[in-house]
Amino acid sequence: MILLLTIFRFKLNKYSWFLIVLFLAIAIFFHFSRILLLKDIDKKIQSSGFKINLGSNSSSNNSPTITENEIKLIAEKVTVRIFFDDNNSSIGGSGVIIYQKDNNYFVITNNHVVKEENINYSIATYKGKIYLAEVIKRNNHNYQENDLALLKFTSKENYPMINVSQQSLKENQIVFSTGFSFQKNLEQSKELNYTKGNLIMILNKPLIGGYQLGYTNLVHNGMSGGSIINQKGELIGINGLGKYPIFGNPYIYQDGVKIDEKQAEKMSELSWGITIESIKNFIKNNEKIKDD
Predict the structure, then answer these.
(1) Handedness of CA 88, 153, 66, 31 (dihedral sign)
(2) How far apart are CA 225 and CA 139, in angstroms?
(3) How many contiguous H segments (helices) and E segments (strands) does the chain have?
(4) Of the four, 10, 19, 52, 180, which is 20 to 30 A from 282 by CA?
(5) For residues 199 and 213, what is the distance between their CA atoms, to the nearest angstrom?
(6) What is the mean pLDDT of residues 239-267?
(7) Cβ of 150: how many Cβ atoms within 10 Å?
(8) Which value, in Å, is the radius of gyration of the alpha carbons in the chain?
(9) CA 186 to CA 74: how far, in whole Å?
(10) DSSP secondary structure string, 180-196?
C-alpha cells in the first residue's frame, strides 16, 4: 500500500515504471512458485504411502536425493512447536509429526520438552494453527530409558507426515537439524531454525537418555525434539542434546559405563540425537497408534 501511494504521489519516468512492473512480476512469480513447490512436496510425501514400519529393516536405497530447498520445505511442514505459557514466560521445544490415524496426529519429541506434569501443552503447526496436546507416553524421567515422549493432537486439517528412513546410517553423511530455538529474550522463535552438518559418530550403544548420533549441526535450546533429516528428506532421528552442555556429565553409557575424559571432550564438540530405531521401539507397543 505504501508503495502504491508513493507511485501515485510522484510522476515516474518509463524506466521507473518498468522497474516497478518487473519487481512486482518477480515477487508474484516467486510467491506462486513456492505454492507449487509446497504442493509438489505434499504429493511426494503422501505418494510414499508412509506408515511407521516397526518390524522392517528394509532399505530405502530407491528413494532419490532431493534438493536442499525441498528438504527445508518438508521440515517446515512436519516440524511443530511445543509450548506452554506460565505467567507470560514461554518455554517449550519442538516435535515431529510421525503418524496419523483418522483425525489424530502423533508427534515424537523429547521427554525433557514435556517434563512438567499437570500442564496443558500446546502444539503450533506450520499453518499457524494451535492445538491442545495430549501426552500419550513418556519415560517418567528415568535416565536409563530414552529421552522420548509421544504427543497427540486432533485436527480436521490435513498435515503430512515425515518419511522414516530404513537405510543404514554412515559416518560423515550430510544431515539437517530443525527446530524452534529460543531467542536472546528467552522467547521461543516462531520461525523454524534449520542447520546443516555431518554425522560424525554413531555409537554402538546409547548414552543416558538414548543418545547415539553425534553430528556437527548447531542445536540451540528449543530445538530439542526437532528432526534430524537425511538428504532424501527422511527422518533418521531427533535432536535432544546440544554441544558443550553446561550442567552435569551426559557422556555416560545407558548401562552405567563411564566414558574417559578425552573421549568425552571430543563428544562434547558434537550435538547428539536419538535414532529412528529407538523411536520405533518406544512407540511400537502403544495401542493408540497401532494399525487396525
Answers:
(1) negative
(2) 14
(3) 5, 13
(4) 180
(5) 7
(6) 93
(7) 24
(8) 21
(9) 27
(10) --B-TTSPBPSSPEEEE
Please report, to the nearest 10 degrees, the dihedral formed by the alpha carbons of residues 99, 172, 168, 241 taken in order.
Answer: -40
Question: What values do phi and psi take at 268, rounded to 5?
Answer: -70, -15
Distance CA 125, CA 157 (A): 10
Largest CA distance in the chain: 77
pLDDT in tens, 271-281: 999 999 999 99
What's the first-to-final CA gap in the chain, in angstroms?
54
Number of Cβ atoms within 10 Å of the Cβ of 86: 9
Per DSSP, the three-state class of 258 is strand
CA-based nearest residue to 231, from 70, 44, 43, 40: 70
Q: In what order do the strands lie in the sheet with 122-124?
A: 130-132, 122-124, 79-86, 89-101, 104-109, 149-154, 134-138
| CB 239, CB 223: distance < 8 Å | yes
Averaged pLDDT, 40-46: 47
Domains of the chain: 48-284 (2.40.10.120)
At residue 128, φ and ψ (nearest 5 deg) are 85, 5
Half-sphere exposure of 30 (CA within 13 A, CB side): 5
Count of alpha carbons within 13 angstroms of residue 188, beta-carbon side: 24
Crossing angle of helices 68-78 and 14-46, in 10° steps, is 70
- Asked if residue 192 lies in contact with residue 76, where contact means CB atoms within 8 angstroms, the answer is yes
141-189 per-position pLDDT tens digit: 666 789 999 999 999 999 999 999 998 999 999 999 999 998 766 778 8
Hey, how many other C-beta atoms are within 10 angstroms of the C-beta on 218? 15
> Cα(93)–Cα(192) distance, rounded to whole angstroms?
11
Report d(CA 213, CA 237) in Å as an integer.
8
Tell me the C-alpha to C-alpha distance, in Å, between residue 276 and each of 14, 18, 70, 235: 59, 53, 21, 7
**Strands 213-215 vs 134-138: parallel, antiparallel or unpaired:** unpaired
